[in-house]
Amino acid sequence: MKNKSIIIICGDPQSTFNEILIKSFKNKVLKNIKFPIIIICSERLFQNELKKFKTKISLKKFDNQNNLRKNNIYIFDIPLDYKNLSLEKKNSYIKKSFEIGLNFFKNNKSLALVNGPISKLNFLKGKHNGITEYLAYKTRSSNEVMLIFNKDLSVSPITTHIPINQITKKIKKKTIITKVKRINEFYRKRLGFKPNIAITGLNPHCETFIGKDVEKTEIIPAIKSLKKKKIKVSGPFSADTIFLKKNRKKFNVIVGMYHDQVLAPMKTIFGFNAINITIGLPFIRITPDHGPNYEMYGLNKSNPNSLIKAFSFINKYVRKT
Fold first, then answer.
1. 66: which residues sit within 8 A by CB, 6+ positions away?
2. Which of 315, 274, 176, 317 is nearest to 233 (CA)?
3. Do the Cβ atoms of 248 and 281 come closer than 8 Å?
4. Is the same domain home to 105 and 178?
5. Which of 21, 63, 220, 281 has the most CB atoms lying inside 10 A of its own CB?
6. Is the dihedral of CA 16, 22, 23, 28 positive or negative?
7. Are 264 and 206 found together in one domain?
């Protein structure tokens, strides 16, 4: 385990990620981390950000993944003329960052990947629905699961970054079963217990409407099958009431049918106090639960709590396994 590291891909050079990363390094959580950290970023850009936010961090130049020491912070430099950026140059920089970062996992010498938020519109350009799907493609993974994690309550959408009018045809019994099983195993392996999982319906009040009735054909059969596998699931629940305090406190995870059905109430309840975990990749991938936040770039007003929670999760639940 001594060579195991956490890989941080800073990503978009015009996002607020470098700011929240620098703020996170000041937090006591990182003082307890016992593994090396490798930052993949333009060194000139990162050093400039350190000066901007009046912070000193001891950065070591990355040399060899076999020679890493715990508690040290290394930087893998990707040259970038960040003062004269075009969209093409920025995308090339982000792509190279991911290629290098993912390569570090080939020899199983890294614990987890943390990446800064990326603009799906500017970087993916419709080729992938989101970074979750982009990483699944790059690692040849399937049935990846998005888990927005908080120790009190987590949520997971069965469908992620797709248009509303495509959701119904993507909700399948097999998909629900596979994703819920992965969530259950993640909690059992990483947190040490089997979670209580609520599953929502798709339609308002889980009622039958004209057209395909996915509650009857897909969701309820999936719940019955999961119960036979001794997984603690309940539902389907109406999405407009499951997040009421008296209801949600009964569960560790609420699984919804689409992105905003569960992420909107989650962010309303917990704000920055949650992290985005991708389950189903060859490694644990964690990212702050917010976007690039371009309008806040350089203002020194961004909240680092989500990234601090990411480091805390790795330190508590990932490094020991």
1. 3, 109
2. 176
3. no
4. no
5. 21
6. positive
7. yes
Which domain-ending residue is among 237, 256, 273? 273
pLDDT of residue 57: 84
User: In residues, how long is the chain?
Assistant: 321
Residues 166 and 123 in one domain: no
Residue ranges of the chain with per-residue pLDDT less than 50: 1, 210
Query: Are 177 and 288 contained in the same domain?
Result: no
Domain of residue 242, residue span = 144-273
CATH number of 299's domain: 3.40.718.10
Structure tokens of 195? 């979670």
CB proximity list for 15: less than 8 A, separation 6 or greater: 116, 117, 118, 291, 292, 293, 294, 297
Q: Kindly report, residue by residue over 159-217, the tens digit of the pLDDT.
A: 988 889 999 999 999 999 999 999 999 999 999 999 999 999 998 877 655 456 899 99
Whether residue 148 sits in one domain with residue 135: no
Instruction: Tell whether 112 and 238 lie within a shared domain.
Output: no
Closest Cα partner for 154 from 279, 274, 250? 274
Question: What distance in Å separates the CA atoms of residue 308 and residue 60, rounded to the nearest whole number?
Answer: 22
Q: How far apart are CA 304 and CA 26, in angstroms?
A: 10
Here the tokens at position 31 are 């003082």
